[in-house]
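re the bet — no i am not wrong, look at it urself. input seq straight from the record:
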Amino acid sequence: MADVERSVRGDAAADPGARAAVVRAVLWMVVGVLAVRQVAVVLRRPPGERLTDLETWTGATGVLHIAGSLYDPGRFTGTPFAGLVLRPLTVSAEQALGVVWTFGSLLLVVALGFVVVRALPAPVSRRTAFLAAPVAITLLMVSLPVRTTLHLGQTSILPVLLVLLACFAVRGERLPGVLTGVAAALQPAVLLFAVLFWLTGRRRAAVSGGATFAVCTALAWAVMPRDSWAYWVHHLAGAGLGARPDSLANQSLHGALLRFGLQGPAEIALFLVLAAVVTVLGLRRAARYARDGQLLLAVAVTGCVAVAVSPTAWQHQLLWVLLAVVGRAGTRASDRLVWPAVVVLVLTLPGKMLLPNVGVVLPVRDNVLLIAALGAACAVPFLSRTSPHWQRPVPTDYAKPVPARFAWVPLLPVWRRVLSRPNLLLELLLIRVVYSAYAKVRLAATAGRSTAEEHGGQIHAAEQWLHIDIEHWANHTVVAIPWLRDFFDYYYSTFHFIVPLAILGVLYVRRPSDYRWARSTIGFATVLALLGFWLYPLAPPRLMPGLGFIDTVHGVQDLDSPDFGALTAVTNQYAAMPSLHFGWSLWCGVVILLLAPKVWMKVLGLLHPLFTVSAIVATGNHWVLDAVGGAAVVGAGFGLTYVLAGPRRLRAAGDGDDDVDTADGAAGTGVRPDREERAPAGGPVPEPAGKA
């Protein structure tokens, strides 16, 4: 492996510098941690919940054995040839098999990562060559296909590795075809790579690949005729094995059509037509990229075609989609990372984290892996190596910052203010992912009811000592005035998300530079709030027994029951300190105060945190000190952004050392609201050509 890595890096990466060496060491540590974690996750699972496909053969003695057909239990989904390959494992004890299988799979992932790095299209920069191997292996380990493969005990990594070895590690024509044929015997859709060989002029490799597939399949027929009949005939090449074909686990065109409600001959006919179209378009694109010198991208595109047109494409078979991350799409440097980021997010996170549970986006969320595969196969306009933008994308415009009051600010000088808008698709995707992670951590950050109520008593006592315990008076006063109660209930439930999203939307359209600054501040504040939820679980006034608060928003709660209320199962009701209801509203007020061009807008913006703090106290959902905590994390968010990135203000266009406050309008920065990439004279300093 070390020799392979040296061959990948070459002489250009021999002296990458101390900083790159430290980064590389950290990345290899991450790889090691991930490997240990994957082994621990698999081996900690009780029997029956790990290596479930292999445990189809586990007998009462804890030793694997083949009794009857592979497909009788309905859990094994591999080909008969895969069963034949796994037959030697039937002499292994179950525990030993789990250890050996998991370590062996991880070694295959490492080998796959090195081969992928070796296959990167030239020229490769020194930094990329030096860091590519640990980055590639990390992405592979955290991807859903690899994690699922380790859990199920599948052979899905092996076909991918065999194809990559056939394309990049062995010479001649016959041996690459043999390796591809063996891979196709394990995963039949991989036989499409023989077609790719044919289209790129490697006809002997194509013929030997098809012949090897036929020989391996015939061998499995001879040794296991009953299983072969069950797989190829009874289950239509495995289409009837495993979960229901219309389940979300089947990310193929066939599965998507079934989920849309199509069935019978009409669905089969439409599937065959769509599969033919995707195959023709995808393989033509793959052949073009192969002739262009992007063979790894051609392999990824062909694999994505195989995923889409296979009758069943389970999650552990979708590793081909991750390889498409090597494609370069976009002529601007600011767009160059959009496609890789989308691929990595789709292949590492479940669909529920990528898109909300809203009816209009459910078809996209349920088929997001298929959509990514179809995009790579047929739609994404990957650049040719002959394109002038292949090595030199249109540079990004960076603003020249105003000098900070302190010489050590900013701490991260590489964090430069970009004047153009970020890609909308990627921005929405990242916002959704961050919010999903926030919601999951918030839900998990609880130490139990007794601890939360104890902390609630501490907060109540502190407020009494400070003479600011106005929650009970405000709560009962509002309850006695129906219209005021309805107003605060509505304000509490409605404006928490609407106002921040509206501000971000306006800034994205009108003030892209300030949008990035504002987004960073609220992001830091939210992360700091999560630490508060985790370290100090706190019961809000409405959930404190014996204090007489009335829950005006959620209704009466049975405080004698540990599972009071319907919200207990879906949200952490003890995440009260700090109050992000008030924190986000204060962020809105500060942003409007700084950036709004009219005085009446600034005044209106300051009313939002005033109404919000009144609502959270009057409805019994927060203590007064929770609002203080919310203000503290928001202040820290603004401070962190200042320390790391420097002042919000930018230099005016055409001015030497004079600076302006961007609150005076986009025109004050010399930047038109609709500007994209071209910098005004004397304004932002563009990035050097060729730097992504």
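see?? The longest strand covers residues 397-398. told u. also The first helix runs from residue 2 to 9. so pay up
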